[in-house]
Design brief:
Elements: H1 5-8, E1 15-18, H2 24-35, E2 39-44, H3 49-61, E3 66-70, H4 76-90, E4 95-98, H5 113-141, E5 144-149, H6 162-182, E6 187-194, H7 200-209, H8 216-221, H9 232-244, E7 252-255
Helix pairs in contact: 2-3, 2-9, 4-5, 5-6
Length: 274
């Protein structure tokens, strides 16, 4: 049986900001929160504006309101403006989802300082700035929810994802520390660590960057113990859980089909986790 409109309106009146939500996991989260009544600020790069407008249209078609903000999260001013735009348009901020991330390849031998700085700027520094800006408003109301999107790479990561893995490890500790501090204001902070998720970006990575061709998914599915890939919808449901549960803070959910520490080949297709 499907959910009724009243059941889906669990976030009615609330306002959410979701970074990196013009496509992929972030787009799925933005749509999910909108479907459940939240007004949503959708954020992404200027080059992804068309995708962002489609997400906004989908949220509005579901009966809620949405606003698109484009820019580069490496820019501190843009990070701070995102929260301010949500407040100016909707008058409040209840949910911040730090989803945007850069996943460039590089080992200790071929990762440049510039690449390291770019990944950390988007994956770790931007969430810090956004949280800092959001907390100023949330603590006045003694209420708020922050959901950080990490990765199971935080625990070790693929050899060719050094900077990305380090940044995701950092955001996990950041989540725990922030949850500890913000409990005094009744602001909840949790994290989702997705594994291998089928998105538009992942298709490009596997088919083009990894050189596996357009039919890479056929082989990938053979490695999935439950017969399918994780989808943005799956991660969005987890984000909705954290957004609507008022008694959990400091939690990290590893959302993957293989438990961490399982004896699998770290270079096999089935272990490519992002």
């Amino acid at each position: 049986m499907g959910q009724t409109n009243s059941e889906k309106a669990s976030l009615a009146g609330q306002v959410a900001v979701v970074t990196g939500s013009t496509q992929g996991i972030g787009g799925g989260i933005a749509r999910k929160l909108g479907e459940h009544g939240a007004r949503v600020l959708v954020q992404g790069l200027q080059s992804q504006r068309d995708g962002g407008e489609k997400i906004v249209q989908a949220i509005e078609a579901a009966g809620s309101q949405a606003l698109l903000a484009t820019g580069d999260l490496r820019d501190e001013a843009h990070c701070r403006s995102i929260v301010r735009k949500a407040l100016e348009r909707f008058g409040r901020l209840d949910i911040l989802v730090n989803n945007a991330g850069v996943v460039h390849r590089g080992t200790i031998e071929d990762t440049s300082t510039a690449l390291w700085d770019e990944i950390f700027a988007v994956d770790l520094r931007a969430p810090f700035i956004l949280c800092q800006e959001a907390v100023r408003h949330m603590k006045e109301r003694r209420s708020g929810c922050i959901v950080n999107i990490g990765s199971v790479n935080a625990y070790c990561g693929l050899r060719k994802l050094l900077a990305y893995s380090a940044a995701k490890g950092g955001i996990m500790v950041f989540t725990k520390n922030l949850a500890n501090y913000l409990s005094q204001y009744r602001i909840r902070v949790n994290q989702i660590n997705p594994g291998w998720v089928l998105t538009e970006g992942e298709h490009y990575v596997e088919a083009v960057i990894e050189g596996k061709g357009e039919n890479w998914l056929e082989d990938a599915l053979k490695t999935r113990p439950f017969g399918r890939m994780l989808l943005p919808e799956d991660i969005a449901n987890a984000a909705l859980f954290f957004a609507t549960n008022e008694l959990i803070s400091g939690a990290v959910l590893d959302y993957e089909q293989y438990p961490f520490g399982a004896p699998i080949d770290l270079e096999s297709p089935g272990a490519v986790v992002r």
